[in-house]
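User: Quick one: structure for sequence A, then sequence B.

Assistant: Sequence A:
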Amino acid sequence: MTQNATQTLHIVGGGMAGSEAAWQAANMGVNVVIHEMRPKVETFAHRTGHLAEMVCSNSFRSDDDEQNAVGLLHWEMRAANGLIMATADKHRLPAGGALAVDRDPFAESVTETLMAHPNISVEYGEITELPSEGHWIFATGPLTSTALGAAIQAETGADRLAFFDAIAPIVYADSIDMDVAWLQSRYDKGETEEEQKAYLNCPMSKDQYEAFIDALLAADKTEFHEGETAGYFDGCLPIEVMAERGRETLRFGPMKPVGLTNVHRPDDKPYAVVQLRRDNALGTLLNIVGFQTKMKYGAQTEVFKMIPGLENANFARLGGIHRNTFINSPTLLDDQMRLKSRPNIRFAGQVTGVEGYVESAAMGLLAGRLASAEILGHVLDTAPLNTAMGALVHHITGGAEAKTFQPMNVNFGLFQPVDGLKGGRRGRKDRYKAYTDRAKTDWQSWLAAQD
């Protein structure tokens, strides 16, 4: 199909959302140009110029498509021939029931696949204005550039919303004391021995935990720039912020000691446990789970070496903190994800106020399909409300309270109730299964109507 410039879909940002949007559109027969500012314009968090680079965790979280909303989102994206999920499956690492990936080969593979597609081209350079003509998707993610952010602010007439996202440190596996640490997934979760030993555990006694909390609270922290405020997303809080909320908070969060038995001292129940998860296929790199931080680098090495088993740890990457920008989507976007004031522009990914790799890619998938249908001359209904993707897009385009709008992971709280099912914890398993069964049926019907 030959298309002129007005039939080309321009996608700004080559992260999870932009990459998935490009893939979906190109497979519908639309010519796509991805505009990526990296590596010409760098960010604090990115290390490469690859598309779909993972900058925080290497986990796509739960892969359970019957009892978990993000697992259901995985299922829907796979059913829609999603590039991000197919590539994640290809580069999967053991993670005890979660979907974790080898981050560098993952990004390299996404980049190679997109670059090889005959309908896709990539232009490197920064887009600083909102165009008045053509078909555009802005999927610039949490690190939207200052110039583009100012253009969005000028167009919408509202202040940008921003919070701070923190990055967890990565440790070289061979520097960990395995006479102290041991391999075990919580509750031995996983179908294979490799999955059941997907996490490395470092135990703490009560005294060790108390000393760790004291050091954490006293450590030097990164200062904010003038005019910046710390509005953290609760799903990615720095550990020192969690510790400030109460000395036991970490023991009931990332350091909870439940479901684990110390193989070195099976009769000695740890007071707290720090977990590390494989970050690459070789198993040479491990990230400290839930240990996003804004401590200064020198303080990080001192505090983290207090963890039993990490006394001599070498760090491949220390933690960090960066600005995360998103728009007030419920007031700005219509149900086709278009900017109400400029319908030739759609937004997708984390900049819309979804949180997480999977959610970002899912919004890219949907925006890519919606934009392509429009270019090809027909209207595509947005995702059905009772699907994971539909629940999420409904939340950001009108379901959320605009005055208190904050980034959101997909969760069953966004789903319409199923009549006749019990509420509360006891009815949760049946309720979640009903949600996922209903969603799969509706999602398959939506996809079939496009064939």
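Sequence B:
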Amino acid sequence: MMSLSINRAAMRAAAPARQYAIASQSVRFASTKTLKDAVAEVVPAKREQLKKLKADYNDANLGQIKLENLLGGMRGLKVMLWEGSVLDSERGIAFHGKSIPDCEKVLPTAQDIGLSGKEMLPESMLWLLLTGQVPSKEEVKQLSAELASKGKLPSYAEKIIDSFPKTMHPMTQFASAVASLNHDSKFAEAYKQGVRKTEYWQPTLEDSIDLIAKLPAIAARIYHNVFGRGDGVQKIDSNLDLIGNYSQMIGYGDNEGMIDYLRLYIAIHGDHEGGNVSAHTAHLVGSALSDPYLSYSAALLGLAGPLHGLANQEVLGWALDMQKKVGDNASESDIKEFLWTTLKSGRVVPGYGHAVLRMPDPRFSALSRFCDTRPELKNSSIVQLVQKTSKVAPEVLKEHGKTKNPYPNVDAASGCVLYEYGLKEWSYYTVIFGISRALGALPQLVMDRALGLPIERPKSLSMDALEELLKK
């Protein structure tokens, strides 16, 4: 039965004996705690920290709102609580205080849990984002096993996905399939039964883990249906990690480079503070107490927008056009000439600049470092063209003078590597991004519920009302 309706009377009448308790379904190893245990340890301290902030600084001024902020998409306004990551214009992204290079040093890799591969695992990043703590190898292995155990799609979801026309955009299919899993939401059922507000985070966490576990199978089934690639049945191997299984499902199970690239790609794309469209949308819809499936479905629809999730496709198209003009072994002068041709035509150079950063994107640096370690990418003409361009373009953009940040962002590299590995269906790239962004958006939804954050409801004004206000 669909669980969109909410019985408020049942909640108010619920007795303490009916309070919701999650039955643990995780695979557990001796002498390790589960992710739920780790989050449960964090919640009391986070609640106390929020309580103290309110008590000590509730009337403190965080800055003045100007008309340009209201008309400029609220850019830069400090009006949102987001625990998983902080983006600083000069220092880059930090996940609970840890930079990407820090994470690459301390977060467990595939090799650490007995698999082939040297890159940090998305499971490791998920644990860090949820708890603020670096997990042990055993904890990551346990979480990986839990995700595998929950990764199979229910038959109704498979039928829904199979009913979509092949011509429907993969992101439309992805968001619709995610929303359909609301059918089994533990949060929606617990809310209907009258769960205490202080316990909202528990069924939210269980839904979130269940959704993250199932995203690869949803994405793989869409890939097979639309493009005819992959195993067609979304078979899950309990001995593989989340991305090892995803790679098998989409037909790359024997490509070690692609598997490790996807691990890195999904880990570093998982969270990028809360103000971007997809993360903010999950938070906004979740603030109405929509369950994680509905909240993240809405986030995916935001991610599908051309100004958010399609940038690496635009970069790839531009880079391939440049390759046609300058050839496989372009000189720096060839690249400079193409850059100036782009700029003089009134277009921007895609993959350069950032809404917040005023430095090279550390995510680009991580992907660039990966390219330098893989022989097949060092021999790739398109990847090496992108690498050369990243060294030439900043000086051209500085000379041009109209770009606040002339350095490459993550999109300058991400799509080109997928293309080189053979995944050339551009319209699918945002689906991969969608698997990743859940690692940040859903943990924050858990924290929103743990901290009891209210429904988000900013004040809006008409232009007439603004004029009247500003004349005073």
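The radius of gyration is 23 Å. The CA atoms of residues 144 and 241 lie 5 Å apart.

User: Thanks, that's what I needed.
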